[in-house]
Design a protein that fits this description.
By secondary structure, the chain is mostly helical. The chain has 19 helices and no strands.
C-alpha cells in the first residue's frame, strides 16, 4: 500500500514530462529553418523524424519493462548489454553533456528574446537566465511533487499557446498582412528526406519520463503510451504552425531568422504577437530546463550507484532528491548559456552537434533491445516492441542516415563530425582509466542484468568499497 501511495504520476503527467523537453525554443528555430528551406513539405520530413523517434520510444519502453525502476535509464541498459566503456561514453557524452549543452542553448535563445522584446527593462540577457535557473533549481530540490505540478501547468500553457497561434495563422485571421507565396519550394523525395536531420530535433526528449517511471501509476501502460502521445501532439501542433508560417512570413526570412517565432508573432499579431511568442519561449525554457534538471540528476544518481560517476551524485536530501546533480546540472546550463549568449551561429551549430550526440544514444538503445532479446528471449516483459527486430533495425538505419546528413553544408557537416568525434575520443580515454583503476572491472565486458539491477540498492557501493573491490 505504501509503495502504491508513492506512485503519484498519472498518464497526464507522463505526457507533460515528455512534452516538456520536446517543446523548446530551439525546436521553433529548427521548425522555422526547415519550413523556410522547402516549405510545407517539411511536414513530411517531420512525420518521418517523428516515426523514427517513436521507434526509439518503443525500444526504451521495452528496456524499461525488462529492467524496471532503474534510475540510470539507458546507462543501466547499455551496461548490461555492452559493458561499462560504451555506457560511460554514451551517457556522459550522448546524454548528460548533450542535454546540458542543448538546455544552455535554449536558455540563450530565451534570454535573446526577452532582452529584445522587453529592452525597456534594461535587464542584461544573462540576468533572465540566472533568475529562471535559480528558481527551477530550488523547485526541483523539493522533489517530484513540485516537479510534476510545475510540469503540468507549463506544458498545458505552452502547447495551448502554440496551437492557438498556429490556428490563427493557418486560417488567416491574424492582424498582420497575409502574403502570397508558394506552399512548397521542393517536393522531390530526396529533398524531403534530407531534411529529416533538421526535423529530428523537434522530437527529442520524450524518453525523459523513463528515469521517473517508478513514480508512475500503471507504468506498463502509461510510460510508453504517454511518450507516444507526447510525440504525436507535438507533430500535430508544429504542422499547424508551418501553415501559419506560410501565410504570414516569407520563406527566405523564416529560414534566415535566428528567432523565427518572434518574426512570426510580429507578422501575425503585431507587437502583441511578438510579446506572446516571447512568453511562449519563456514557457519553453521553463519546461525544458525543468525536465532536464530533474531527469539528468536522476541519471547521474543512477550512474553514481554503479560507480560510473563520483559518489557525491548519489547523495539525496530529505526530500529524496539527488541534490548534487540538481545543482551541478543547473550551474552547467548557465555556463553553456553564457558561452552561446546572443550568437545565432553558435546556437545553430550547437543544436546540430547536440543532435548527433543524441542520435548515437538512440542507436545504442535499439542495439540494447536486440542484444537483450538474443540473451533473454523468454524473459517476461510487460511491453515488447512488435514485429520482431524490424522496428529497432529501422530505427538504427534511419538514425545513421540522419547522422550522415546532419547538415546540407559540407563544411559545417565536417565540423560537426570533428567536434563529436573529438569529444567521444576524450570521453573514451577518461572511461578507460576510470573503469580500469576506479571501478576495477573489465573495460568491454557486459555486466549480468541481475547485478546491474542490484546496483540500485544503496548498499551495493558501500559493500564493494568495504571489501576493497571499488575505491
Amino acid at each position: 500500500m505504501a509503495a502504491e501511495q508513492e506512485k503519484k504520476l498519472g498518464l497526464g503527467s507522463v505526457v507533460s514530462i515528455s512534452v516538456g523537453l520536446i517543446i523548446a525554443t530551439s525546436c521553433l528555430v529548427s521548425l522555422g529553418q526547415g519550413a523556410g528551406t522547402i516549405g510545407v513539405t517539411f511536414i513530411f520530413a517531420m512525420v518521418i523524424a517523428c516515426i523514427l523517434n517513436m521507434t526509439t520510444v518503443a525500444s526504451l519502453s521495452e528496456l524499461n519493462a525488462l529492467m524496471p525502476n532503474t534510475t540510470g535509464g539507458l546507462a543501466q541498459y547499455t551496461l548490461a548489454c555492452m559493458g561499462p566503456f560504451p555506457t560511460i561514453i554514451s551517457m556522459v557524452g550522448g546524454y548528460i553533456l548533450c542535454n546540458v549543452l542543448s538546455c544552455g542553448v535554449e536558455a540563450s535563445i530565451f534570454s535573446y528574446a526577452m532582452s529584445d522584446t522587453f529592452s525597456f527593462l534594461h535587464i542584461p540577457s544573462l540576468g533572465y537566465v540566472l533568475i529562471v535557473t535559480t528558481l527551477l533549481m530550488i523547485a526541483n530540490l523539493f522533489g517530484v511533487d513540485i516537479f510534476a505540478k510545475l510540469q503540468d501547468v507549463v506544458a498545458f500553457l505552452l502547447v495551448g499557446s502554440m496551437l492557438l497561434m498556429g490556428i490563427i495563422g493557418a486560417i488567416g485571421i491574424g492582424f498582420g498582412k497575409k502574403i502570397d507565396q508558394p506552399y512548397t519550394m521542393a517536393t522531390d523525395f530526396k529533398s524531403i528526406v534530407s531534411m529529416t536531420a533538421v526535423a529530428f530535433w523537434l522530437f527529442i526528449g520524450a524518453e525523459y519520463v523513463i528515469p521517473v517511471s517508478k513514480s508512475v501509476k500503471n507504468a506498463k501502460r502509461n510510460v510508453p503510451l504517454g511518450m507516444m502521445i507526447g510525440l504525436g501532439l507535438i507533430c500535430i501542433v508544429q504542422s499547424i504552425l508551418v501553415f501559419g508560417f506560410h501565410n504570414y512570413v516569407p520563406w527566405a526570412e523564416l529560414a534566415d531568422s535566428p528567432a523565427p517565432h518572434l518574426l512570426y508573432g510580429m507578422n501575425l499579431l503585431g507587437t502583441f504577437g511578438k510579446i506572446w511568442m516571447t512568453l511562449v519561449a519563456a514557457f519553453a525554457v521553463v519546461s525544458t530546463q525543468n525536465s532536464t534538471v530533474n531527469a539528468l540528476a536522476s541519471i547521474c544518481q543512477g550512474m553514481a550507484k554503479m560507480n560510473m560517476m563520483p559518489q557525491v551524485f548519489a547523495k539525496t536530501n530529505r526530500h529524496g532528491v539527488p541534490y548534487v546533480g540538481v545543482v551541478f546540472v543547473s550551474v552547467m546550463i548557465f555556463v553553456f548559456s553564457a558561452l552561446s549568449n546572443n550568437s545565432s551561429d553558435a546556437i545553430s551549430f550547437l543544436i546540430l552537434v547536440g543532435s548527433v550526440f543524441w542520435m548515437i544514444s538512440y542507436i545504442l538503445a535499439h542495439m540494447d533491445v536486440l542484444i537483450l532479446r538474443k540473451r533473454f528471449p523468454k524473459a517476461p516483459r510487460s511491453f515488447k516492441v512488435p514485429f520482431g527486430p524490424a522496428i529497432p533495425v529501422i530505427g538504427i538505419l534511419g538514425t545513421v542516415y540522419m547522422i550522415l546528413n546532419i547538415s546540407t553544408d559540407t563544411a559545417e557537416r565536417n565540423a560537426i563530425w570533428l567536434v563529436t568525434g573529438g569529444t567521444f575520443l576524450l570521453l573514451g580515454i577518461y572511461a578507460f582509466f576510470w573503469i580500469k583503476y576506479k571501478m576495477k572491472m573489465p573495460v568491454f565486458k557486459s555486466i549480468p542484468m541481475e547485478k546491474v539491477m542490484a546496483m540500485e540498492n544503496d548498499m551495493y557501493y558501500t559493500i564493494r568499497k568495504r571489501r576493497g573491490i571499488w575505491k
